[in-house]
Amino acid sequence: MATVNIQNRFARLRALLFGLLVIPVTCWTSSGGVAAESTEAAGAFAAETAAAPRPPSAAEETFTVVTYNVENLFDVDGVAMFNDYVIEDASEPFSYSRRKFQTKLETIAEALKTFNEGSGPEIILFQELEADFTPDSTVTDYEAFLNAHADQSLGEMLGVKWRGVYAGYPSEAWLLKALSDAGLGNYEVVVSPSYGMDSGIAHTNAVFSKFPITRSALHRLDQARDIIEAEIDVQGHPLTVYVNHWKSGASNPDREPIRVGNARVLRRLIDAKLAENPQADIIVAGDLNSHYNHSDLFPDIETGINDVLGSSGVEHFSGNDLYNLWFELPPEARYAEVWQGKRGTLMHMLVTPGLYDDAGVSYVDGSFDKLVLPGLNADAIGRPVRWNFAGETGGGSTDHFPVFARFKVGPFVQVDPLSQGDDAPEEELPLTVATFEGELDLPDGRFLNALSDAELAAYVAQLFTVDAVVERLRPLQIRVGERLWPAYFGDAAIFEPDGLPRYIENHGGRVRLVVQPNFYRGQSQLIIESIHSK
Questions:
Q1: 295, 307 in Cβ contact below 8 A?
Q2: What angle (nearest 5°) sits at the alpha carbon of residue 413, between those of residues 411 and 416?
Q3: Dihedrals φ, ψ of 301, to 5°?
Q4: Are 10 and 373 in contact (CB under 8 A)?
Q5: On the CB side of 297, how many CA atoms lie within 13 Å of its CA?
Q6: Is pLDDT of 341 > 70?
Q7: Sheet with 282-287: strands ordered across
Q8: How far is CA 503 from CA 71, 463, 464, in A?
Q9: What is the pLDDT of residues 95-138, one digit of tens each?
Q10: Which of 17, 342, 363, 416 is the right S-S partner for 355, CB 3.0 to 4.6 Å?
Q11: How many alpha carbons fall within 13 Å on the CB side of residue 92?
Q12: What is the percent of the chain where pLDDT is above 90?
């Protein structure tokens, strides 16, 4: 069955995320700065983590890098560029609230806790943290912030022990607290600043690293978030990361010239770094709002990711210096998003030839993947379950799967044949209930009729089968038992002549459907995913 297949894949994925080396890091950065090391804290950390000494194993020499778009992780200061995140009336069921913010934070921490036997990735490259629009109350000393709130949990701070001064804390500080509460600690932080409400840039990028960050710089982009350039000391070896979030609208070719400009800025940075050292160890990561095969999907325009940046599937670096790790997976497994029923690869991790040589840091061959956690961030057919405002707590996760890879200090070891980059499809591959190739054993959704909206919130984005009567096509309404539901169709093929119109004409509108509960503008509805084959 489909759910079993996904769970088996999840089990294989978890097997990849075995216990890796955790480096004690005791200094914390402010926005773009690096603080000095605290000897006292270093001793405390060593005492806390030191067990019986033993030689390092191969597993301990590897570390994990994750890039993670957390979909509008907005703080709770009431100042937001998006109206959905302005806290005006917490009693309204679809208002953003401190409790919903807690849900978002804890879901992120739960996902990241699946790495390294619960201790979390060594390096996390975040996108879509809210830029801090209340700088007078920002946090600049993250270690002091954590120490000041060590006797309070995240839930207490956002709940019974809430104080007005907490409203000004930026999203990265709250995220750091959530990770710390979950046992994922000792991160240095670099985050780009807000440029004000008039900038039109609501989000920021961030680097969280358990290794020391020795240098960082911010690079402005047109209509996009700053690129964060950070040099990280991995056991005495420099690793440079570039964290990106380019202009949105991957499906809109009219916006591609903006992404081309974004790509040119990044390309100049990489060229300068490689001019200093052609074997520099570089990771380019983040949400490029471009597919790995963007030039195949849009052959008539210049693309930022392929034509300007030079992202390629050629793993032996013949004529290229950026290998896109999406080519590590078979074409059908290459996706971090599903939009309008099509798989997308907006999240990326690209590497340079230096990560394939015999010196410094190297890529662990075959270790790249996306983090799919059924029941937490994925639905029954393996699609991301995006964040929603439903109910008291909100729910879901994010519209992007995090992607990750493992690296190590030492020479590159080839495990799989090197990619030739010749297997990229020229169209986006579908992923819908109707096209899903596995078996689905879905529960009957008749019980949904009896639920209030508050109760229904717990079932948003889950899949059910229902026997329904199509009452109207436009606007779409279906009757399940005695309840009339507004409905939305996720797949346009449902409206083709062989779809719902045939059932209206030949079956009195009676049809068995695969649906998921949802809310639209505060109104409960059912999204029709497929006509169920009995």
A1: yes
A2: 155
A3: -130, 160
A4: yes
A5: 21
A6: yes
A7: 213-221, 224-234, 237-245, 282-287, 347-351, 323-324
A8: 38, 21, 19
A9: 899 999 999 999 999 999 999 999 999 999 999 999 999 877 78
A10: 363
A11: 13
A12: 75
